[in-house]
Design a protein that fits this description.
- The chain is α+β, with helices and mostly antiparallel strands and about 525 residues long.
- The chain contains 15 helices and 19 strands.
- Helix 1 crosses helix 12, helix 12 packs antiparallel against helix 13 and helix 12 packs across helix 15.
- The radius of gyration is 34 Å and the shape is elongated.
Length: about 525
Amino acid sequence: MSLTTRFIIIVIVVLGAAFSAYPPGEKINLGLDLRGGIHLVLQVQTDDAVRAETDQDIDRLTEELEDDGLSGLTVERTADNRFTLRGVTGDNIDAIEDVAEEFLGGWNLDRQGDVANFRMDGAYARQIEDMAVRQALETVRNRVDAFGVAEPLIVREGLTGDRIVVQLPGVDDPERVKRLIKNTAFLEFRLAVDDVGPAGSREELLDYYGGTVPSEVELMAEDLKDPATDDIVGQQYWALETKRVITGRDLRTARPSTGQFGEPVVNFTLNREGGETFGEVTSANINRRLAIVLDGKVVSAPSINGRITTSGVITGSFSQDEVRDLAMVLRSGALPAGITYLEDRTVGPSLGQDSIERGRRAGLIGGVLVMITLLIVYRLTGSNAVLALLLNVVLVFGALSLFGGTLTLPGIAGIVLTIGMAVDANVLVFERIREELRNGRTVKSAIDTGFAKALSSVFDANITTLIAAIFLFTFGTGPIRGFAVTLSIGIVASLFTAVFLSRWIFDFFIGRRQRVDSLSI
């Protein structure tokens, strides 16, 4: 490859990196430790997912047994992963086992007299727990993305753990984000019981039912808010049918809007199956109350004025922010299990700015000392390495900007380490050239031989470090990944500057002279 061709390649790469990184204050994304924000460690309550799966399997078993004409059976959940079926006889046990085998593949059945004990298989339970964490991770990611946080970090801690690490740089309202993440947003539409209006206390409804609420009825509270301040001033209670008309899983989309009186509401659209079910129920229950239940609380209970099919409105005492957040959460889907906060740290921007200044100072001091050392040890040839070193830093920042990487405090440490790696490659080449000159070779022959013999060592050192950086990025979290990113980019840049650029500089200056008798090295 000619000198001109190599020069064009170098100019294109360096100018492209400089253009990509300038101005660095706007082009380089800063991590949590530099920009400020919040750091959260969430724990997914996987027991909730197992319990929910148990309840669903109980409903499935009950429906299938009723379809097969088996009556007189009662089901009771005795633990998160166990339930019992009473009323088993010698006449119906075969049919029960057939239904369980067909529809409950992850359960073990043990009969004791007229009771069949169902226990969830351990592998099946672990699969449910793992899926719950994966779904929670995706749901949290969708909610954070919808909130508009730049360069968030949302990863699972470990390969099989139940914890999720969330880092959100530049967040100025951490409490709202935490509510948005933790909100389960399990939406249900339930019919209110006829002739049982809202009561001021739960005891009033209990008295109405004689102290015992029927199994097909559930009592739920609704918060009452002051319209002027949005503060909760009391509660009222509803008697609702336990059977859900539709749930949030039937939603296709949701968006914030305003009602006919200018109040904040959420418009929603149902999928085809949910729309058909909703249309049938609403057309058969005109003038009845339909309660909108969110996370186990009634938000409103409007009357059904007509048939509703594919779209509707969620009304309540909402503020504008609450409507936006509710629509956002509904679009991202409900969490499969509850979430608790194990760690909650807020990093102020002033601390981040201090980290930037200290990192910059460390990089500058280290870089200047390295450059001085190169010039002292290798004389004029050391300027070759100094130029390569400066362009190496430009390439690193350019690549960070181009690929949307995030610069963290450990990432700055990776850049400083990259300076050492780049110098190491030049030292290997220069020492080889020195050795060949001492052996009596000409300058051009010493340069050719020095690069040829050092090349394997340079590639070996850098490729092995790159492999380690890839493993750090793959299995690490947070700061470790930031360090691995800058280190990986720096290694690739070092190979380019130390091998390609440095060799071109030698060839360029030697090619301009007809005879070269000595080299300042």
